[in-house]
Design goal:
Order of helices and strands: EHEEHEHEEHHEHHEHEHHEEHHEHEH
Largest sheet: 4 strands, parallel
Helix content: 40-55%
Strand content: 5-15%
Number of strands: 13
Distance between the termini: 14 Å
Radius of gyration: 19 Å
Length: 314
Amino acid sequence: MAVKDLKFALNAIQWINVKEDPADLDSASLWRFADPAFVSEYPEVLRAIREAGFDATMMEVLDTQTLQNYASMVAESGLALAPGYVQVPLASDHGGRLERGTFERIHWFDGVRRKAEESAYFGLSTIFLAAEVDQDAIRWQQPAVGADFSQDRLDELTDLIDEAVDVLNAEGVKPGLHNHVGTWIETQHEYEHVLNSIDASRLGASFDIGHLEWAGISAREALTTWADRVQDLHLKDLDLDLARRSREERLTYERATDLGLYLEPGLGQIDLRGTLDALPDGWDGWVIIEVDRASMDPVESALHTARWVAEIRA
């Protein structure tokens, strides 16, 4: 695949996942998408993404926004939208298993329906689908090593994902399974089990390059193995020495992040260009770049990332 032909977008996460006091690693970590005050700052963030040199950003409608409000904001920014993200929570993590057809099970997918609605409203036909992030769970405390694996739990989650896929497909949105370190789908066995259990016509593969490598999986080999199902990608660079240390020393997800695991493209050790070269000819999915914790000012981080895209395209 010719890298110059790929569609790149930037997730706004440089501005979102920040420390309360950047000089203090032990200060609180903030997720600013959840901050009611962020909606007033969002237009400036999108403007910065555009001025850095990007044409598109990942769809992320805030809970404090209507679709119409978000659409107006995006239109004013001049950016196009790349596919969004939906999480599927595990029922047994929240009180017990749910039988198909029950009142509770049907409402379990209300959040998925909302994401389907958002995607359809903005003309997006694909979406990233992942297991729920739970920062109180064991995998957030012991990430990237498949902690506390249970095949029974994986089967339960696969069944819920299967129904979530139906909900999305019914609205004309095809999900791609997304591996995410710190969730119940982070290892090769786990994402391959789900992909092998659900038909390719209904569920694609939307890998996170950085999270594959953090879990010790070759992203290039994953793209090659699942070339016929790769739909969209999240692309991030990592300090791979720190990634290995996090597995060996059982660093928490937050601690690894605070210590500088995530880096702007080209500043880490992942062969991002070589990985993208593994995409099949004619591939037309999105590559959404994420710097989950910027190593510099967010605007400088976006500018650096845009320069990196220009360089690899050249």
